[in-house]
Amino acid sequence: MAGPSHQTTLTVADEPRAPTSWQRFRKHRMAVVGTVVLGLLVALVLLGPLIWNVPIDKIDFRARLAMPSAAHPLGTDDLGQDLLARLLYGGRVSLAVGFAAMLVAVVIGTLVGAVAGMSRGPLDAFLMWLTDLFLALPTLPLLLLIIYLFRDALKGLVGPEVGVFVLIIAVVGGLRWMPVARLVRAQFLTIREREFVEAARALGASRLRQVVLHILPNALGPVIVAGTISVAEAIIAESTLSFLGLGFPPDTPTWGRILFDAKDFLSIAPHWALFPGLAIFLTVLSINFIGDGLRDALDPRKVR
Amino acid sequence: MTAPLLSVRDLSKSFPIQAGLFGRSKLAVHAVDRVSFDLRAGQTLGVVGESGCGKSTTGRCILRLIEPTGGSVTFDGKDVRALDGAGQQALRRDMQIIFQDPFASLNPRMTIGAIIAEAMTIHGLGRDAADRRVRVAALLDRVGLKPEHMRRYPHEFSGGQRQRVGIARALAVEPKLIICDEPVSALDVSVQAQVVNLLKDLQDDLGLAYMFIAHDLSVVENVSDRIAVMYLGRVVEIADASALYAGPQHPYTEALLSAIPVPEPGRHKVRRKLSGELPNPINPPTGCHFHSRCPIRKLPLCATERPEMKPCGQGHMVACHMRG
Predict the structure, then answer these.
(1) Transmembrane stretches, by residue range (chain A) (predicted)?
(2) Of A87, A162, A270, B46, whose CA is between 20 and 30 Å from B323?
(3) For chain B, which ranges sit under pLDDT 50?
């Protein structure tokens, strides 16, 4: 039936290609702006400390709570430490924690949601029960408990810095997968009944193939948005932990940590809180725009 | 006479529904209720009936997209319901389906070429990707689309074109039987004729058998060799197309036929209108399901006993206490 006719292949090249995902992404202006801003932030925290090589822990009481000046472009804190240096250094930790925890949350959430949405029956009920359980757990006491229990063991295993990093990512990501799981399950329940999935079943596609090729790509939109939100949540959660003395050591100036230290001086030194707040705000905003752009770029129906 | 390609006997599917708290009283909807028919290679069986009469469910049970609860399906001498994984996979090559809604039946994130080639990939047809591309191009050409369309996405096509893509996907595995689940009901009338003609051409060229599901008799008249009329999960009449149109036996068939408009000004057919609504399938009328709306019902039997299929002519069967 499908007898090969070799002329037909030649004409294929004439047809203009449908816009690629990248072309669609570029048309999303805010997403491009977000990418540029986020790229700048990442470049700053990576390269900044090499250029602005003021030590982050040099205490100078003569310059306590100094407003921004030539010597201290972003001012100083209550110990006279240079804020620019601290922000640049701390940004590495904050951004790394934010992205890694988001990945953990999205991967766990997608796995749980996909398995629940495909299985139906007892496994689905169990997984949703587990999700509800995690949602109902008070996060903070649980965080404290886990960190008290495992911090020393992990530190011994991989060293203090990496140990705390892994622990925080696991804990923050591990407690934020539930909304993703619910979203993915809901998407799966509707999409698996759509006719194109039934068509794949009728063609004999395996369950894995149905999920990977047909259901998951059509379920990703809300997941991406949820993922971008969890980056912001993770950055904030890390600062909460640091504030409680359970995150990174107090002398590691993550953005959240600086913000918390600054909160008691809002009226006399607003710049102290302003700049880390701005950094978090810019990061979250750009990631949200990028998420929007990604969602549209991955959807071939969107031609703008 | 050779053995039929597809033989369906007493096929049944009931969906349980839970009524009341804790699902104490379990009821069931008998979506398909002991349906039987034969379909020969290269022929078309039209299946008509109102929405919810179980015609689509019947089609999906034959494909085992829905697991039937009773009866048997024999395809090409094989018992479909007893097949293991490998047998099932082989069956998927022989039986395909075309869906009603061309907007829902194509994955919006795959190109036309990828959609059609997927069928070949699953069944290991074609030597390599390049060979499959040649086959896809030939298939697109066969269903009246251009080979260069393979790089486009479904949303770039009209309903009729998408339905052609759906047909090409079904043809990609070289099936013997295609279940057409209302393939033209979602299309404009002018496009309907094109798609129906395409299906007929393909049947002539490739010797396909169709089970052609539709909700009115005028569409199936052109394509069918035999026609089965369904009402609330049961087949009430089955006959060769010409015999059914010339002499419908079941009062429900008569009513359906009289509803077809006559393209002749001034001529008025006697319309046999049915009173009442389609009964609730959860709680269908006793005896003959149709007796609550039947214009010729007389026997008390109609309300108490299910009419069995009785022959009433050459290859003509009807399930009515009053006829046959």
Answers:
(1) 31-52, 93-114, 126-150, 162-184, 211-236, 273-294
(2) B46
(3) none
